[in-house]
Design goal:
Blueprint (H helix, E strand, L loop, with lengths): L1 H16 L13 H12 L2 H5 L1 H8 L3 H25 L5 H10 L1 H34 L3 H17 L2 H26 L14 H12 L19 H31 L1 H6 L3 H10 L2 H34 L18 H14 L5 H28 L7 H18 L4 H24 L5
C-alpha cells in the first residue's frame, strides 16, 4: 500500500515536472487536419521502397505481412489514444512512459523514438535523393542535403504552413497508391495470395521489415499541444489514420503482387513504378518518380516536425538543455529544437540508405512501443486509471507483438538499440541529479 501511495505521489509530482513552461505552442489544429497529417506521414517512403525486399520474404502473402504489422501498430495506437486523454503533450513516448514508470524510463522511451525519427528522416531523404538522381543524374547525398535545407526553412515558417504542404503532398502520394490499386485489380483473379516461399517465418520477417512503413502514427501525439481539443480529437485522428493507411497498404500489396508477381517485385529498385510500367508502359516510370519525390519529401518533413516537438517536450521537462524548449514568438515554432533536429538528421544522411537503416529504425521504435504499451498495462493494473479489461489486454498484446517483431529485426539493430537505451538512461540520470531538489 505504501509503495502504491508513493508511486501515486510520484505520478502527481511528475505531472508538475513535465509541465512545459518556456513557451506555449499555438492551438490551431483540428481532427481532420491531424488525421490527414497522420495518413501523410505513414504513407511515405516505406511502402514505396520496402515493398521490394518484403515481397522477397513474404512472397504472394505480402498483404498478410502488412496486416500483421498493422495489427501491432493498431494495438499500440490504442495505448497512444488512451494516454492522450491523460497527458496530451508533445514528446508522447516520454510523457506516456514517464507517467507510468517515472522520468528516467520515460526519457529512454522518448530517446529511442527520437533517434528512430532522425534516422528515418535521414534515410527517407536519401530515398528522395535517389529518385531525384534517377531523374536528373545529380548526386544522391547532395540531393538529400538540399531537401533537408529546404525543409528547415519550411519548418521555421510555422506549423500551419508545414501541415498545409503536407496535406497537399499527401493527396499526391495517396493518388499514386490508389493508381497502383486500380491498375492491379484486373490481375487479382488467379493470383495465389497465400504463396509463402519461406512459410510463416518469412511473413513475420517481412512484417518486421515493413513495420517501418507504419512509422508515423505515433508522431501525432507530438501535435497535441497544437490541437484545439486534443483529449477528444487525438484518439479520433489516430483511429482514422490507422484504418485508412492499413486498408491502402493491404490493397497496394494485393495489386502489386497480382500485377507483376512477388519475384519481380523483389528484384526491382522501384517496385511500384514497375507496376505502373506494366500497366501503362515506360512513361509511367517518370510519373511515378515524381510521385515518389512527393512521398519521400512529405515523410521527411513530418518526421522532422515531430522530432523537433519531441525535443521541445523533453527539454521543457528539464531532461534536455532548456534552450531547446524556446518557442519563437512570431511563428510559435521551437526554432532551436528544429535547428538541432535538422542538423543531426543531415549528419545521418552520410551514414547509409533507407534499406540498411530500416532494421535499426524498427528495432528502436518497436522497443519504444513496448515500453509505452507496458506503461498502460502498469497503470491499469495498479488502478492508477479506471481499470478496463481493454486497458490490460490490448496493450499487453501490443507489447508482445512489438517485441516479437523486434526480435526479427536482427542482432545488429537490437544491439544498437541497447546501446542507445543505456546512453539515454545515463543522460536522464545526469539530468535528474542536476535539477533542483524542489523541481
Amino acid at each position: 500500500m505504501a509503495a502504491g501511495q508513493g508511486a501515486g505521489m510520484n505520478n502527481r509530482r511528475l505531472a508538475t515536472d513535465t509541465r512545459l513552461s518556456p513557451g506555449a505552442l499555438r492551438r490551431s489544429l483540428g481532427v481532420w487536419r491531424v488525421s490527414l497529417t497522420g495518413i501523410g506521414v505513414i504513407l511515405g517512403a516505406g511502402v514505396y521502397a520496402l515493398v521490394a525486399p518484403a515481397s522477397g520474404r513474404a512472397g504472394g502473402a505480402l498483404w498478410l505481412a502488412f496486416v500483421l504489422a498493422g495489427v501491432a501498430a493498431a494495438f499500440t495506437a490504442y495505448s497512444y489514444a488512451r494516454f492522450a486523454r491523460l497527458r496530451p503533450k508533445a514528446s508522447p513516448e516520454f510523457q506516456y512512459a514517464a507517467l507510468a514508470f517515472g522520468p528516467t524510463v520515460g526519457f529512454v522511451a522518448g530517446w529511442l523514438m527520437l533517434l528512430a525519427d532522425l534516422l528515418a528522416a535521414a534515410t527517407v531523404a536519401l530515398g528522395f535523393g535517389g529518385y531525384l538522381a534517377h531523374l536528373t543524374a545529380t548526386p544522391v547525398t547532395a540531393n538529400a542535403l538540399v531537401l533537408m535545407g529546404g525543409l528547415a526553412v519550411l519548418l521555421a515558417a510555422g506549423v500551419e504552413s508545414s501541415i498545409g504542404l503536407a496535406i497537399a503532398l499527401t493527396v499526391v502520394e495517396v493518388a499514386g497508391l490508389l493508381f497502383v490499386i486500380v491498375v492491379g485489380l484486373p490481375w487479382w483473379p488467379g493470383t495465389d495470395f497465400l504463396e509463402m516461399p519461406a512459410g510463416l517465418s518469412g511473413v513475420a520477417s517481412a512484417a518486421s521489415l515493413i513495420f517501418f512503413a507504419y512509422l508515423g502514427f505515433d508522431e501525432l501525439g507530438n501535435f497535441a499541444e497544437e490541437m484545439r481539443r486534443p483529449e477528444r480529437d487525438l484518439p479520433r485522428a489516430l483511429l482514422i489514420a490507422m484504418v485508412a493507411t492499413t486498408a491502402i497498404y493491404v490493397l497496394v500489396a494485393l495489386s502489386a503482387v497480382a500485377a507483376v508477381g512477388a519475384t519481380a517485385l523483389a528484384a526491382s529498385s522501384a517496385p511500384l513504378a514497375l507496376v505502373a510500367r506494366a500497366a501503362l508502359g515506360p512513361r509511367a516510370e517518370l510519373a511515378f518518380g515524381v510521385v515518389a519525390l512527393c512521398a519521400t519529401a512529405n515523410t521527411a518533413l513530418l518526421l522532422l516536425a515531430a522530432a523537433a516537438r519531441s525535443v521541445y517536450g523533453m527539454a521543457g521537462a528539464g531532461l534536455l538543455p532548456r534552450p531547446l524548449a524556446q518557442v519563437s514568438r512570431g511563428t510559435a515554432v521551437p526554432l532551436v529544437a528544429t535547428a538541432v533536429v535538422v542538423a543531426v538528421a543531415a549528419g545521418f544522411v552520410f551514414l547509409g540508405d533507407l534499406a540498411r537503416a530500416a532494421s535499426l529504425t524498427d528495432a528502436a521504435l518497436l522497443s519504444s512501443f513496448v515500453i509505452v504499451n507496458l506503461g498502460l498495462v502498469w497503470l491499469a493494473w495498479r488502478r492508477a486509471i479506471p481499470r478496463r479489461a481493454a486497458d490490460l489486454v490490448i496493450p499487453a498484446a501490443g507489447a508482445l507483438l512489438c517485441g516479437w517483431l523486434g526480435s526479427h529485426t536482427g542482432w545488429m539493430g537490437l544491439a544498437a538499440t541497447g546501446v542507445f537505451a543505456v546512453v539515454g538512461a545515463l543522460l536522464a540520470i545526469v539530468a535528474g541529479r542536476s535539477r533542483p531538489a524542489s523541481a
